[in-house]
Amino acid sequence: MINVLNEKALRGANYYSYRPVIVMTIDLGIYKETKTSELGDFVDRLLTLLPSLEDHRCSLGVRGGFIQRLREGTLLGHVIEHLAIELQYIAYMDVGFGKTLDTDQPGVFEVIFSYWVAKAGIFAGKEATNIVNNLLEGKSYDLETTIKELKNIRDDYHLGPSTAAIVDEAERRGITVIRLDDYNLVQLGEGKYQKRIQASITSNTSMIGVETAGNKRLTKRMLEDAGIPVPKGTIVRFLESAIDDANWLGYPVVVKPYDGHHGKGVSTNIQNNEALRNAFERSKQHTDRVIVEKYITGNDYRILVIDGKFVAAARRVPASVIGDGKHTIAELIEIENRNPRRGYGHENVMTRLQISSVTEHLLAQAGYSLDTVLKDEEIFFLELTANLSTGGSAVDVTDRVHSANKFMAERIARIVGLDIAGIDVIAPSLRQPIMKTGGAVIEVNAAPGLRMHLSPAEGHPRNVAQPIIDMLFPKGSKHDILITSVTGTNGKTTTVRLISHIMKNAGYSVGMTTTDGIYLRDRLIAEGDMSGPYSAKVVLQDPLVDCAVFETARGGILREGLGYTVADVGVVLNVQPDHLGLKSIHTVEQLAKVKAVVAEAVRRGGTTVLNADDPHCIEMAEHCRERIIFFSLRPLNPVIRAHVDSGNPAVVYDQGYITILDKEMIIPVARTLEMPFTMEGRAVFNIQNALAATAATYAVDVKIEEIRLGLTSFFPSPSQMPGRTNIIPIKGFDVMIDYAHNPSAYKNFIELILRLGDRRRILVIDAVGDRRDSDIFEIAKIVADHFENIILYEDKDLRGRNPGELIDILEKGLLQKNKDPKNIYKISDETEAIDKALTMAERGNLICFMTGRVRKAIDYLYSYKEKCEPMSQIELPEAYREEDE
Description:
Blueprint: E1 3-10, E2 21-27, H1 42-49, H2 65-72, H3 76-90, E3 98-102, E4 108-114, H4 118-136, H5 143-157, H6 161-172, E5 177-179, E6 185-188, E7 195-198, E8 201-202, H7 207-214, H8 216-225, E9 233-236, H9 239-249, E10 253-257, E11 267-270, H10 273-284, E12 290-294, E13 299-306, E14 309-317, E15 320-322, H11 329-336, E16 342-343, E17 350-351, H12 357-366, E18 379-381, E19 393-396, H13 403-416, E20 420-427, H14 434-437, E21 440-446, H15 451-454, H16 465-472, E22 482-487, H17 492-505, E23 510-513, E24 517-520, E25 523-527, H18 533-540, E26 547-551, H19 554-560, E27 567-572, H20 588-600, E28 602-611, H21 615-620, E29 627-632, H22 638-645, E30 650-654, E31 657-662, E32 665-671, H23 684-699, H24 704-712, E33 726-730, E34 733-738, H25 743-755, E35 761-765, H26 773-783, E36 789-792, H27 805-816, E37 824-826, H28 830-840, E38 846-850, H29 854-868
Parallel strand pairs: 16-17, 22-26, 22-27, 23-26, 27-28, 28-29, 29-30, 34-38, 35-36, 35-38, 36-37
Antiparallel strand pairs: 1-2, 2-4, 3-4, 5-6, 6-7, 7-8, 9-12, 10-11, 10-12, 13-14, 13-20, 14-19, 15-18, 20-21, 23-24, 24-25, 30-31, 31-32, 33-34
C-alpha cells in the first residue's frame, strides 16, 4: 500500500520550479525499490485504463517515451507523477510539468507536478495514488467518476471564460495577476497601478451605467429618445393589462420578466391571447413586473463595444436539434452531446445540450415529447434564447457589419455609460443598417460574456481581451510597482528597512514587510513575523504603494513559494547554517538553493544583488539571467575585479567609503563614519548591509545623493531598527537589544561588542526551539568568554521543546567552555530574566538583551527607565513620543 504523507500547493516561484506546483510526499512502503517491469501485467492494465498516457514524452522527449520507461522499469512514484498530470489534462486542465525526487528517508519520495486549480491538483495526486494502489491489488477503478469530480472542482474554482481570457492577455504582457477570491474577482497590476476585473466588469465600469443597463425600461426610453430603433412595448403587473397591451401592439409579441436574465421566463412569437396567458404566468414566476413588446423577426446578434469602439459581432443560434426521420428528440440530444466541440460548462467551444423547463415548455407548445421523432431536416429549438451557457452556438460576423450599425453600437455604449457593452440586436442581417431592414435593439448588457467572440462555433475567433487590456493599461502606462526582495541568513530586516528608508527619501510610497510586521508609509499595519508570501500580497494589493521592499524568508518559500511573481531587484545577503533539519532542508547547499529562488525570480531587465564574499552567493550567479551587482567588503576581491573588468557594476567598502564601481567610474557614496547604524564603522555586518542596500537602490536608478542621504540618516534606534543593536541608556549603564539567533549572527555580534570597548558585560539570552541542538550548543560556546554574567531564559513558544530543555543545552555549552557556574543564572521567565540583569548592572556596564519579542522588550525597558529616572531627563525616540492632539 502506497500512502500519501502530506501535500501542499506552492503558488509562486519555489524550491522546485518557477511555476505553481503541488508537492506530494508519498511512502512507497514495500514497493520502495520495486520497478514497473517487475509487476507482471501492471503496465498493460494501466494503459488499458489510461491509453492517453501514450502522449507522455517523459525524459526521452518522444511520444510514447513514458510507456517505454514503464516497460523498461521505473519506480511507482514516477508513475503517480504522470497519472496526476494526465488526470488533470483529461479534465481540461492543460498541465504538463512534473518530477519525482527522493528524500533522506528510504522509500519516501516527493512527487511534484503543475496544476491549474490547487484543490483539483491535490485531488488528482491522491487519486493517482489510488489508481496505482488499485492496480497493485488487482481492483478496478472508476475513472469516469474521478474525471467528473475533477471537472466539478475545476468549475468551482477556475476562472470563467471571460475573466480567464483577460487574465491570459494580461499575463502575455507581463502584467501581474492576483486572484482576490475563489471566483472571478481579479487584480491586474500592483499597488497604485492596479485595476480590477470580474468577468467583463472592470475598474472603469460605471455603476450608473450598470444600473441603467439593468433597467430595461429606462434603457429603452434613452435609446428611443436618441433615435435608435427599439421594439415598442409596455410594462405590466396584471394579466388583463398584458392582454390589452398585446392587442394594442398587435400580435406576435414577446413576453419576458422585467429584470430577468439568461432567457429565464422569456416567451417569443406569442400569437394569441391564450398563448399570452401561459407566457405571462411563466414570466411572473421570476418577477413581479412583466414586459410585453412587439416581436421582431430576424436573427439574434450580439455586438460588442469596448472603450467606445466596435470590436466584434456574432450571430447567436439557440440550442437545437435537427431531425433525421429516425431518432427521437432525446436521442438527437444525446447524439449531439457526443460532438467533441461540446463540453461541460465552459470547457469547450459549445456547452452540452440539456433538457430544461424551457425545453419542456417548447415541447408542450409544439405538441411534442422527448420521444417524438422529428422529420428529416426539421429543426427543433430547445431554448428560446441563444445563450451559450444553455447550449447555444455563435457564428462570428465581425467582418460583415455595416458601418452604420457599428456607429450605432458605439453610440449606445456611450448613451448607457458602459466601458464594455454587449448590445443585442434582432435583424435580418447586420450587412445593412438595421433602421432600413426593420431590425431593433432588444437589450444592452453590462458584463457581456466574451466566450462567443473568443471561441465561436463558426467563423474567426476574436481576441476581444486585447482591447480590454488596452483600455485598462494604455500604451506607456505603468502596471507593476517597483519590487525589491531581500533574503539571506542574517541582516535581512536591517537591509529591508534601510532600502525602504532610501526609497522613501527618493519620493516613493513604500510598502515594507519584515519579521516585525507590515509597514505602509512607515505605519505599522500588521504586527508579527510578516516575512512570508501572505504579507507580500497585502502590500501588492494596497492602492497607496508604488514601491515594495520584501523580507523574504526561507520558511515562506518552502511553505507556499514566493508571494510575488518577479522582482525588479532580488538580493541575497549571505547563506549560513540556520534552520537546518527543518522542512527537508538538511545542508547549507540545500538552504542556498532555497534562497536562490529570490536571486533568480527577477523580471526581464531587473537586477540580482549578490555577496561576493559568500561562496554560496557566488555560485548563484551562474543561474541568474539578468544583470548582477556584486558587493564586497574587499575592493580587491577577485570576483569583484573580474566582474568589474567585464563591464558590470559592483559596490565595495573602500578606504572607509561605500563605493560604487561602474565601468570606468568610481563613485564614493558615503563615509561609514557618517552612517550612524554602523556605529562609526564598528558594526561590520551593517556595513555589509549598507553595501547591499546601496547596490539595490542604485540598480533602480536612485540618485547618488539620495542614497547618501538615506545611509547617513539611518539610525540604530528602536524606531528605525527595532531589535537590531538598539542601545538604551539607563542609570549610567547601557542596555543593547538585538535579535541574533544563529551562530554566525552571534559571531558578528561578539565582534561588535568587543569593538565597543572593554567593560563588564551581562548577557540575557534564550534559544529558538526549532534549531538543532548542535547550533544552540555552538551559540553558548561563542558567547561564554565574553560576558561576566549570563542569564538564561526561555520563550513561551518552545517550538516543540520540553520546558527547561533549551536552557539545559545552553548551560552545557557554557560549562564546556569552563564558564563559572556561579555566573550562570537560569530564569525561565523573560521579564524576570531582564529584571535580574537590570538589578545586577552598575554604572558603565553593558547589558546585552537577546530577544525575538522586540517591541515588548523596548516598551518594557522604556517603562523601567521612566520609573528609575526623572521624566525630564528622558529623551524618547520619535516613534514613542505621543502625538500632539
